[in-house]
Amino acid sequence: MTKKELRRQIKELKGMTPVAVRHVEADMVFNTIKAMPVWKQVQHILCYWSLPDELPTHEAVNQWLADGKSIYLPRVKGDDLEIVPYHGSQSLDDNNQFHIGEPVGEAVDASCLELIIVPAVALDAKRNRLGRGKGFYDRLLSGTTCPTIGVVCDFQMVEVVPVEAHDRPLDCVVTSDCVICDEEMKQLFFSK
User: Fold this and answer.
1) CA separation for the pair 189, 192 (Å, rounded)
2) Most buried of 56, 134, 149, 182 (most Cβ within 10 A)?
3) CA–CA distance, 76 with 40 (Å, rounded to integer)
4) d(Cα 7, Cα 11) in Å, to the nearest integer?
5) pLDDT at 192
């Protein structure tokens, strides 16, 4: 199956999945992440402000901010993503080309990040990620070294995500049903 065909298939499945189900799965996913030892070790976390068809993040992001974590969200600039501190939903602006809630303010260097939570159209057991096709996260992740966690609803886990030379597997995948980690990263994600 090509990337385009897989995106189409997942889009159909998203259309058949009630929003309430996605919210329940999001709670399970983010509770799993918060229970990981790595969560206690990190302060600076990049997440995403979810679109209606993505695993919902709004409640989790606001809770993490209230818990004292330093949260960052991406902002599209040309062909790249800038990293901008998140200070609450009042600091978001959706007056951009994708009509995505993006943070306003000064961008920071991605080197400050200690964990990146990555959205995906689909993921597989080898931690390969299918994005929306613009390459924003591919470019961002190629310049970072901190751990990455891909998050999706269960129905977005597929047998095989087609990969290309520039595609980099994520370090960990979390759904409401499973946690799949790179062998080398298990120590970081699961050791207390």
Assistant:
1) 9
2) 149
3) 29
4) 6
5) 55
